[in-house]
From TrEMBL:
Keyword Cell membrane among UniProt keywords: yes
Location in the cell: Cell membrane
One Gene Ontology MF term: olfactory receptor activity
GO cellular component, one term: plasma membrane
Membrane topology classification: Multi-pass membrane protein
Function in brief: Putative odorant or sperm cell receptor.
Name this protein carries in UniProt: Olfactory receptor 149-like
Alphabetical UniProt keywords: Cell membrane, G-protein coupled receptor, Membrane, Olfaction, Receptor, Sensory transduction, Transducer, Transmembrane, Transmembrane helix
A Pfam family hit: 7tm_4
Family annotation (InterPro entries): GPCR_Rhodpsn, GPCR_Rhodpsn_7TM, Olfact_rcpt
Record gene name: LOC101682764
């Protein structure tokens, strides 16, 4: 019998097939990360500083920006740390934390997109009752609910993964700790857990997507009944930004977790896009076609430009 010791730390091997590209990737990912943080902070400042934007739609957009600040921060700092030539070692607790917060924030965003679709559904299909249905109390409850159910899902997936014994190899063939790569390192049969995880990870986004699809089917029917061309254009403009963000968020989940035969390089590429590029694009998606957000952003940038010392 082999003498296997209990694993107390893991080694992140990084993105597959990118040997000798560390310096270039460091500069590239650092740029993405900085733009992601700045873009979402600007959106937050623009919404908070403008009373015109203190509406349910922008309240949920604020929550999305907060998620988009923290979501890439789960894996990017450690990735940038080892790409700059430092240690690739991550502790057992650090690995579990990465997995938990990645799925907590990812699931919260998934639920949040569903809530945002419901908000647009009420605004367009029931405009006269909008302020009553989407009251401050309802918005707060929905916002807390997205985080609460995201936490439950992440806790379940993390407990499912780390209740397994890790007593052999400790090299994680990826750039952060995620379920598929961690299950490969477990020294126990993981087939049943893989099936449970597959169903759990697949069922949640599928349910959210179906709810979003239902909301937007009703929205499209209502928009087509609007007689004013300008009214239809504004409604489609608002909804198209949301739909673009939804597609960018949901497609990586399908490609990474629901493909029959995993491809490590494809998974890493899609995961990088999901972790860094999508959160960076969300501020652009929601601001470029929104005159109110652009106006508020302009005011924020002007105030920053005229601060003492500038």
């Amino acid at each position: 019998m082999r003498n296997l010791s209990i694993v107390t730390e893991f080694i992140l091997l990084g993105i597959p097939h990118t040997e000798d590209l560390e310096s270039m990737l460091f500069v590239l990912f650092l740029g993405f990360y900085i733009f992601t943080l700045l873009g979402n902070l600007l959106i937050l400042l623009a919404i908070i500083s403008s009373t015109r934007l203190h509406t349910p739609m922008y309240f949920f957009l604020c929550q999305l920006s907060v998620c988009d600040i923290f979501f890439p921060s789960v894996s990017s700092p450690k990735m940038l740390f080892y790409l700059s030539g430092n240690s690739r070692v991550i502790s057992y607790a650090g690995c579990a934390s990465q997995l938990f917060f990645y799925h907590f924030l990812g699931c919260t965003e998934c639920f949040l997109y569903t809530v945002m679709a419901y908000d647009r559904f009420v605004a367009i299909c029931y405009p006269l009752r909008y302020t009553v249905i989407m009251s401050h109390r309802a918005c707060a409850s929905l916002a807390v609910g997205t985080s609460f159910f995201g936490c439950i899902q992440a806790t379940f997936l993390t407990a499912l993964t780390f209740q397994l014994p890790y007593c052999g190899a400790n090299e994680v063939d990826y750039f952060f700790c995620d379920i598929p790569v961690m299950l490969k390192l477990a020294c126990a049969d993981t087939s049943a857990l893989e099936m449970v995880g597959f169903i759990s990870v697949g069922l949640m986004p599928l349910s959210c997507f179906l709810l979003i699809l239902t909301s937007y089917s009703c929205i499209v029917c209502s928009i087509l009944q609007i007689r004013s061309t300008e009214g239809r254009r504004r409604a489609f403009s608002t909804c198209s930004a949301h739909l673009t963000a939804i597609l960018l968020s949901f497609m990586p989940v399908v490609l990474i977790y629901l493909q029959p035969t995993p491809n490590p390089w494809l998974n890493a590429t899609v995961q990088i896009l999901n972790n860094l590029v999508t959160p960076m694009l969300n501020p652009l998606i929601y601001s470029l076609r929104n005159k109110e957000v652009k106006s508020s952003l302009r005011n924020v940038l002007q105030q920053v430009a005229f601060l003492p010392g500038n």
